[in-house]
Design a protein that fits this description.
By secondary structure, the protein is an all-alpha fold. The protein has one domain. Helices cover about 75% and strands about 0% of the residues. The chain is built from 14 helices and no strands. It starts with a helix and ends in a 6-residue tail after the last helix.
Length: about 300
């Protein structure tokens, strides 16, 4: 399998695991709050990744890259989950999932604007097809909109924008160090940011969870944080940002599928057809019979990416 194909498969695995994390989060969110849960999730993930980095002697980001790596960590592991959770207080899960699926389109636009990735009709068509698949899979829930749902939709688009910028800006740093060490440092920065937010807004208190609840929190830390985001960074180091980002469209479909199966409800045709459409969109965007994926511009690898 080519380097590009390995990257796409890693991204798909990351987004599939992310879908199961949505179901796990729904299971425990009633007994805690989003910021505290995220602190535990990324704290456990970071605590697992750092010893692995040390054991494998993976190269850490260069000292000159540390400020940018920390800012990217705050963007993806603090701002992204904060906006994600805040959006769902104003809109439905289905509408939020559809808004999040704009991340591949935003990634493609950002990559083209910054000269990181070429904007092609094939990639744009694949992204739009995958987004249509998400809408089809979630069509039953899109009609149920609370008042002022547009606010939540905009917040979720903001979260998608954070993810898009992370996808574009982080690739150079991943390639200069290693996916494991880059993810560990970014997760630590984001976890610290969320911890500061949690301490500033509420008294310190452990979540009131039973044994099953703590097992789910452990799952979120091990699988939903350490493994999921390592695979995401790994993918960014091996294929283009858009081909990584388009896998996000799998996330809400997988979450809906697992949620439906766990609740014992029948799987309807819109979900299955939507999943097939998402898969077709990913296949279109991830393959180009005319030419291989464009390599990373040399200037972007040899010099730090410019952050605002």
């Amino acid at each position: 399998m080519s380097r590009n194909g390995i990257g796409v498969m890693a991204a798909l695995a990351s987004s599939t695991l992310g879908g199961t994390s949505v179901v796990a989060t729904r299971f425990v969110i009633g007994a805690t709050d989003p910021a505290t849960l995220s602190v535990f999730r990324f704290g456990i993930g970071c605590a697992l990744l750092v010893p692995v980095v040390l054991a494998l002697r993976a190269p850490w980001p260069a000292r000159r890259d540390l400020p940018a790596v920390a800012l990217l960590g705050l963007l993806f592991f603090a701002a992204f989950p904060f906006l994600f959770n805040a959006s769902l207080a104003h809109t439905t899960a289905a509408r939020g999932a559809l808004a999040l699926s704009t991340q591949p389109l935003l990634t493609l636009a950002a990559g083209a604007a910054l000269g990181i990735e070429a904007l092609t009709r094939r990639k744009a068509a694949g992204v739009l097809l995958a987004m249509a698949g998400v809408a089809l899979a979630l069509m039953a829930g899109l009609a149920d909109a609370p008042p002022q749902a547009w606010r939540g939709d905009l917040l979720m688009v903001g979260a998608a924008g954070c993810g898009a910028l992370y996808n574009v800006w982080s690739r150079a740093y991943v390639r200069r160090s290693a996916a494991l060490s880059f993810t560990a440092l970014g997760m630590a920065a984001g976890g610290c940011g969320l911890a500061a937010l949690a301490l500033a807004t509420r008294p310190v208190a452990l979540p009131a969870l039973d044994a099953a609840g703590w097992a789910v929190v452990l799952y979120l830390g091990v699988v939903g944080a350490a493994l999921t985001f390592f695979l995401w960074s790994f993918a960014l180091g091996r294929t283009t940002p858009t081909r990584v980002a388009i896998s996000v469209t799998v996330n809400p479909v997988v979450a809906t599928l697992f949620g439906t199966l766990l609740l014992g409800e029948p799987v309807g045709w819109p979900l299955l057809l939507g999943l097939a459409t998402v898969a077709a969109g990913i296949a279109v965007a991830a393959t180009d019979p005319r030419r291989p994926a464009a390599p990373m511009p040399e200037a972007s690898v040899s010099s730090p990416a410019r952050l605002p």
